[in-house]
Amino acid sequence: MTNMNEQLVSIRGLKKYFQVGPNTTLKAVDDITFDIYNGETFGLVGESGSGKSTLGRTVIRYYDPTAGTIDFKGQAVHALKGRALKTFRREAQMIFQDPYASLNPRMTVADIIAEGLDIHGLTRSSKERMERVYALLETVGLNREHANRFPHEFSGGQRQRIGVARALALEPNFIIADEPISALDVSIQAQVINLLKALQEERGLTYLFIAHDLSMVRYISDRVGVMYLGRLAELADSDTLYENPLHPYTQALLSAVPIPDPVVEKKRERIVLKGDIPSPIDPPSGCRFRTRCPHAMSICAEQVPEWQEVEPGHFVACHLYQQ
Ligand code: SF4
């Protein structure tokens, strides 16, 4: 489905800082550049505190950027006004991590799913509204009898399906899925992934799929970006990233992912990173990964490694590969 020639979203030099004290700035996203192509799934991976959710929320205009730009279909997202802004709000939707917290417990499933339709005045009668709700429920593998129930009557997996139906109601072409499966049992995770994949094929959707580890991301992503402390460490198409990871951080993350082949799995060497992810309020100088990197050199403390394309489509920020 990927049309690698057409960018849907272009992110350039994006920074999002938060003032958390009189002289304290949290640099949640710090100079990030990449594109998301029409029809692809871009997986964005990083530990908590890496800035990946802040990035997603800035793309969808939940936050204003501190610096840099985000274009959607060639238009600057944060400059949109009037009708163009309304269109963006329909075309770009979000699915959240915790389907329970993100669904209002006092609203019926029908009202949750139809909320966007109501706000945008997209149905002419209550009959048409309910027909849309029923169709959306069936699209996500639920049924019309579920429409008048409340979120607490559903399992975690079903609740995430309701979240997906809500996101689809306005017929978007771009969905940011912020850790949509992290709160679900492993057995349910694959079902939600399969649903998202099927919807993408049917509707030509583009996804920004945010996750905290690399295990499930491979099965859904065309390309993957790895974030560490507000910066991108590496970006490549999925097969390249999993088979030939260059950045020491990507290598460590991948070493923690079990391999389905028992022979290969037996030989898997786990790279255990020392320490925790440092605070984004006072990140290490130079390469932000240097305090945990097994290959750190003196230059790593002095210079920020450049974001370089080391082979077509494969980007990495690490002094081991600087040309
Ligand atoms: Fe490690 Fe240095 Fe590369 Fe950073 S730049 S990942 S510290 S080798």
From TrEMBL:
Keywords: ATP-binding, Nucleotide-binding, Transport. GO terms for molecular function: ATP binding; ATP hydrolysis activity. The keyword NADP does not apply. It comes from the Bacteria. GO terms for biological process: peptide transport; transmembrane transport. PROSITE patterns: ABC_TRANSPORTER_1 (PS00211), ABC_TRANSPORTER_2 (PS50893). Signal peptide: none annotated. Residues 9-254 form the ABC transporter domain. InterPro entries: AAA+_ATPase (IPR003593), ABC_transp_ATP-bind (IPR050319), ABC_transporter-like_ATP-bd (IPR003439), ABC_transporter-like_CS (IPR017871), Oligopep_ABC_C (IPR013563), P-loop_NTPase (IPR027417). PANTHER family: D,D-DIPEPTIDE TRANSPORT ATP-BINDING PROTEIN DDPF-RELATED, TRANSPORT ATP-BINDING PROTEIN. Belongs to the ABC transporter superfamily. This is Oligopeptide transport ATP-binding protein OppF. It comes from Candidatus Carbonibacillus altaicus.
